[in-house]
Design a protein that fits this description.
Helix content: 25-40%
Oligomer: single chain
Shape: globular
Distance between the termini: 11 Å
Number of domains: 1
Length: 263
């Protein structure tokens, strides 16, 4: 992972929750990607993933560590969708290859998450075949789109540096991403098996940010997204350009989550 600049360069310590509130902006009603009217809501969790977890005649449970709620609809629930911050063209046509790449990755992870625990690397050709470079890059674009939608949902300015990557640039400057396997979620899954229940879920980590006192703005945003026991951490850092993200490697390193930074 890239190392953030020290506090000597005017950065505050990592911030969470209400500490990030001073750096929020008013919603514009515009698509953060192209600037058109924002009239669609991206899923926080893909409908295909939710369908895998949704037993017939039952419902899903959402929780944030302090409260829980039943999810009645995978299409409309505010628990599974961001606010409207993309236009229809960007959320559907333009980003369809990203969704296809994510669905292939997610299907592979759901099927192989137990065996992946014992691996140090995830071979992208197992997911995408000979076209692994296109597949892995579009997977990364899905995560960058998720990052932008989440920042807009939480009323933070979406970094302009995200857009060229979504538009076709081969690498996202100032955005680092690493794959991981989560030992705590694996332990929960294994305990669920012993208890005769499916304890697999979808998880989004709380956001952690940093801000520059001299620039008076958010300069770093860190979070993660997990499918079962395998996930990705993504970090946008205004002061870091050269990164080594997972998608440039055929054999992408599969880190232990507890060996990666949490902010």
């Amino acid at each position: 992972m890239a190392t953030p600049p020290s506090d000597e360069q005017g950065l505050q310590a990592p911030l969470q929750g209400e500490d990030l509130a001073p750096f929020k902006v008013a919603p514009t009603g515009k698509c953060w990607w192209c600037g058109d009217v924002a009239d669609t809501r991206e899923h926080k969790f893909k409908r295909t993933d939710l369908a895998r977890m949704w037993p017939q005649g039952s419902h899903l449970v959402w929780g944030d560590g302090t409260q829980t709620a039943n999810v009645r609809s995978a299409r409309k629930s505010t628990f599974v969708k961001f606010s409207a911050n993309l236009c229809g063209a960007c959320n559907n046509t333009r980003s369809q290859p990203f969704d296809v790449a994510y669905d292939k990755f997610s299907s592979y992870v759901w099927e192989h998450q137990d065996s992946l625990w014992w691996r140090r690397y995830l071979d992208m050709t197992k997911v995408y075949g000979a076209q692994w470079e296109d597949g892995a890059t579009n997977l990364a674009r899905y995560f960058v789109k998720h990052l932008g939608c989440r920042m807009a949902h939480e009323n933070y300015p979406v970094p302009a540096v995200l857009k060229p990557f979504l538009d076709g640039d081969p690498k996202a400057d100032s955005v680092h991403m690493a794959l991981y396997k989560d030992p705590a979620l694996r332990a929960r899954r294994q305990q669920g098996k012993r208890d005769g229940i499916d304890a697999t879920g979808l998880f989004i980590e709380p956001a952690v940010g940093a801000a520059s006192r001299s620039r008076n703005r958010l300069t770093r945003y860190f979070s993660g997204l997990t499918i079962g026991t395998v996930g990705v951490v993504y970090v946008w850092d205004e002061d870091v350009v050269d990164t080594d993200p997972f998608y440039v490697h055929r054999r992408a390193r599969l880190h232990r989550r507890d060996h990666l930074p949490s902010a």
